[in-house]
Amino acid sequence: MKKWLTTISTVTLAGSLLAGCGGNEKAGSGTEASGDQPAGKEVTIKIMNFKVEVAEQFNRLKDEYEKTHPGVKLQVDTVLGGDDYNTQLKARFASGEMPDIFNNEGYNQMDAWLEYLEDLSDQPWVQNEIDLAKEPTTRDGKVYGMPVGLEGLGFLYNKDLFEQAGITELPKTLSQLEAVAEKLQAAGIQPFVNTYDTWFGLGFHNLNNAFAKQPDPNAFIKGLNDGTAKISDNVIFKDWTHLFDVAIKYGNKNALTTDYNTASTLFATGKGAMNQSGNWLQPVLDKLNPGMNVGILPMPINDDPALNDKLFVGPSNNWVVYKDSPVKKEAKEFLNWLVSSETGQKYLTKEFKFIPAFTNIKTDPADLGSIGADVLKYIEEGKVLGWHWAKYPDGAAPEFGSSMQKYIVGKINAVQMLGEFQSAWDKMKSR
Amino acid sequence: MKERTYGMKWFSVEIVVLLLALLFLAPFYFVLANSFKGFAELLSDTSGLPKSLDWSNYERAWEVLNFPRALRNSLLITVFSDLCIIVVSSMAAYRLLRHPTRINRLLFPLFVAAMVVPFQAVMIPLVKVGNWLHILNSIPGIILCYTGLGASFSIFLYHGFMKSIPLEVEEAAVMDGCNPYGIFWRIVFPLLKPMTVTVIVLQSLWMWNDFLLPLLILQKPELQTIQLATNSLFGQYLKQWDLALAALVMGIVPILAFFLALQKHVIQGITAGAVKG
Amino acid sequence: MRRWLTSQTMQQSVFVGPALLVYAAIMVLPLLLGIYYSFSDWNGVSSHIDWVGLKNYKTIFTDDPGFGRSFWFTARFTVSVVIISNAIGFAIAYVLSKPLKTRNMLRTVFFMPNVLGGLLLGFIWQFIFTRSFSAIGQATDIGFFNLSWLGTEATAFWALVIVSVWQGAGYLMVIYIAGLTNVPSDMLEAASIDGATGMQTLRHIVLPLIMPAVTICLFLSISWAFKSFDLNFSLTQGGPYKSTESVAMNIYYEAFKSNRYGLGTAKAVIFFVVVTVITMIQLSMTKKKEVEM
After folding, report:
1. Which residue of A has its CA nearest to C48?
2. How many CA atoms lie within 13 A of A199 on its CB side?
3. Membrane spanning segments where (chain B) (predicted)?
4. What 3-state class would DSSP assign to A311?
5. Strands A192-193, A138-139: parallel, antiparallel or unpaired by DSSP?
């Protein structure tokens, strides 16, 4: 003990006069390390990838790209997903270490970054991009982002359980869905696994249904913003509450505390037949129950089959290019290669398992997993509606979510819930 | 205190405290037990014992996270930040307490006030300042940050503790011809031992588990700490809890061992009697 | 040594200088920068920063019920956590300063929650609240375990308090033990010879002597509870119905999610002022009760 303390004291004693400047001295060495400027002809494209799930595959892609493109090096940082990604992106920006290619969700998340984004309108892939994917990153007719891939949202369903309950035809209307739920329940199967514990599952994914099924969603949202449209007396919203009722009625107990992990587990292990989710759940299901027989259904709100037999599809995220990047030419070349070359396409579909947002990419449904294959079919048949939650005023979705939670526990009725949506929208749009 | 006081009364107290301790330990059971389970078993049977003692999560986490590298970074950061914090703040606290000039009486609350600053409020400006000072993306840089962020808490702790150290000892040393620096390092600092150990333990835990600061300062993969590396197991939709829990256990072991080792010194400090008057 | 080396100015620079330097660079400068941004409409990345004067502050006070709600939650949370964790922390420290046979092991055990940190802590407790509790509830039929712990406002609040106390009590215990070390044993023996009961000794001898530790512990628990972020973030995500969103979370969301950095820092400034005032009051109150040894 004595010895240990004496050692520390000696070290600190010696360092006591240096402690103030020691830090600065060390700090100086940090500068050298950070300056990796492109020397000669060799350039490095810094990519900040947010899909942690494909980190390994991305590194293999990097190797292949560097082999076929001498003089170009890729530096792929797959750091973190979700909120942490944006936080670190801001930190890198503040430190002057911006990546050349990074991710952006589009819509109002793009507003903050817009002045730093390269206009990609003249890129060859733009003409092949499907319209649905363009909206989030298009501003004043200019395209700023390249969609990473498409994702489809609906009710995932367990095909084996459906068969077990004797369901032969998939539901396309609300009545049919309710009949299916009754059949499942009669067969002793929990029809829905609901996870209502977070506001985004409710406010974003669930409520999107009512916005997407408006005759013209963008006009409706514009109407809400200028006061000419109202949620509280909207027919589609009223219809949507009926679907919400069915899901709650035939759902699990304690849905309010069933979190994403629990719900996924219940669904994967056959403790419930349907779960509101999307093809992004595939890797989770693959881990929980490999080879699970699963597909995706639309979410009908009334008995109009033409309106309801559609999935909600949107781009999961977008690649954007930093405008002041010294290697932006090479960065754009890389993005183009990713969606136009055979190798790039192979990685997108076979390795990353993304549903491509480009018409020129042929995808083998078998590569995508069974949910992705279903989503792809809906996309090819054009039976898709969009994602609109990013167009809500900031802060409205959590309010929607909490109103829906109150409705679930019976604190308020449907009329009150729609009324709360309306006042949340009005309150948030003004800010 | 004499052993004679140990009787039925203390025995029953001990039982109660032991039960409470079990309650405190329960969450560790979940971490440890689940770190041996496969992903599916972990989510479907959370509270049960693992079916078998399967080390594959550990092996994979070790590899996937480049654990030795992360461990080295975390160790370097924690040890050297501790050192800097102790030197810088014990000296400052000593001076602030023993020379209560007008400036020093103003400085102490200023230092302490920083403890209530929510980190979220300074994080982006901190990166800007870090950029000016050229301390980003370097381990010495983050050590400097931790010293700055940890200094106020440690000064606060030392300042409170030093009050119980009698002035007479120092006065005697002055008579013996010690200069002020010698007095501090040879006489006062050894007396601060219990608090130094406390400061080391508390600051180490904070830095070891800290996530936001390394996230902001250490942007290069080769500088990743254990916390940063573990977080790369959480994708947007797939959170690999099987590997994360194994990584968590591996991250706990060093800091726990460290605490257990220092705990002895705390007790020694107690038995030696920090105050002899 | 030469005289200039021991001059008061030199001493002041050597002892306080290094701390002041890093502190100024790492804390003060960013904080001032943050205050500067709070008068702007900066979004966190833009190159255009418009000076908006006190508009952000006006918005907070007139048009931001979310901030007020998170403040009210944080205040209630802080009071509960401070009282309970200090009571338990001190009780454990006091008992463990007695000659119990297992005290060394127990000290370690009670401190151990502090080695778990960050987001995983929330995950583990989520498991405990949602799965383990209901498993125990089904087996024993005790109402306590059959509550939907994270599903209702009241229980989610107490869930956060429970976890915070679980983690904080051991930390405070260490400081209380360090404080109890300073209580000379001859004083305690003298008291017991004089026939003082355990409670009397505790109140009239021990407590006054460990006031420095009490000051520290109160201060620490207040500032932690006020700044609570990680746990709310990972255990309840601020739910249900945003009822457990702490001020730090509200600030973080405002600045980084809604890209209103100026407004977020304005909130942080207000928050900082409030917490400073509260802790200063606490410090001056408990410091008065400290006795010089």
Report:
1. A115
2. 20
3. 75-94, 106-127, 139-162, 183-206, 243-262
4. strand
5. unpaired
Nearest chain C CA: its distance from B262 CA (Å): 11
CATH hierarchy code of domain B65-232? 1.10.3720.10
Residue B215, chain A, CB below 8 Å: the answer is: yes
B211-250 residues touching C, CB cutoff 8 A: 211, 227, 230-231, 234, 241, 244-245, 248
Question: Two tokens at A223?
Answer: 């109407």
Per-residue pLDDT band at C2 (split at 50, 70, 90): low
Chains contacting chain C through 3 or more C-beta pairs under 8 A: A, B
Q: Residue B164: pLDDT above 80?
A: no
The phi-psi region of residue B66 (left if phi > 0; otherwise alpha if psi is between -120 and 50; otherwise beta) is left
pLDDT interval class at B252 (50, 70, 90): confident
Q: What is the pLDDT of residue A246?
A: 95
Domain boundaries, chain B: 65-232
Residue C198, C-beta contacts closer than 8 angstroms, at least 6 positions apart: none
The CATH number assigned to the domain holding A121 equals 3.40.190.10
DSSP A393: P
**The model's pTM:** 0.81
Q: How many secondary structure helices (H) and strands (E) does chain A include?
A: 20, 13
pLDDT at A109 over 50: yes
pLDDT of residue A237: 95
Cite the DSSP H helix spans in C128-260: 133-140, 153-181, 185-193, 198-201, 207-209, 211-227, 230-231, 247-252
- Residue B56 sits at the vertex; the CA angle it makes with B52 and B62, to the nearest 5 degrees, is 140
- Are residues C138 and A246 in contact, defined by beta-carbon separation less than 8 angstroms? no
Which CATH number do you get for residue C190?
1.10.3720.10
C268: domain range?
54-289
The pLDDT value recorded for residue A21 is: 28
CA distance readout (Å), A113 to B53, C44, C48: 49, 9, 12
Measured in angstroms, the CA of C240 and the nearest CA of chain A are apart by: 7
Does A31 or A150 have the greater pLDDT score? A150
A–C CB contacts, 8 A cutoff, strictly below: 72
Shared domain check, A300 and A268 = yes
Do A163 and A277 lie in one domain? The reply is yes
A324 neighbors A152 (Cβ within 8 angstroms): no
Residue of A191, A206, A205, A197 whose CA lies nearest to A157: A191
Chains touching chain B, criterion 3+ CB pairs below 8 Å: A, C
Q: What's the distance, CA A18 to chain centroid?
A: 51
- CB of B1 within 8 Å of a chain C CB? The answer is yes
Give the structural domain span for A350: 43-149+316-360
Q: Which B residues, 3 through 62, put their C-beta within 8 Å of a C-beta on chain C?
A: 3, 5-6, 10, 13-14, 17-18, 20-21, 24-28, 30-31, 46-47
Smallest CA-to-CA distance from A358 within A49, A147, A71, A135 is with: A147
Count structural domains, chain C.
1
What φ, ψ does residue A300 adopt, rounded to 5°?
-75, 140
Contact B96 C16 (CB under 8 A): yes
Residue at C25 is within a domain: no
Alpha-carbon distance of C84 to C69, in angstroms, equals 23
Beta bridge partner(s), residue C91:
none
In this complex, is the C-beta atom of B108 within 8 Å of any C-beta atom belonging to chain C? Answer: no
Statement to judge: residues A120 and A157 lie in one domain: no
Q: Are residues A407 and A419 in the same domain?
A: yes
A157 with A140, same domain? no
Interface chains of chain A (3 or more CB pairs under 8 Å): B, C
Q: For chain A, what is the domain count?
A: 2
The answer to ipTM > 0.85 is no
Q: Is the peptide bond before C99 cis (omega within 30 degrees of 0)?
A: no
Task: Provide the sign of the torsion angle of the four alpha carbons C100, C102, C105, C108, taken in this order.
Answer: negative
CB contact C44 to A (< 8 Å): yes
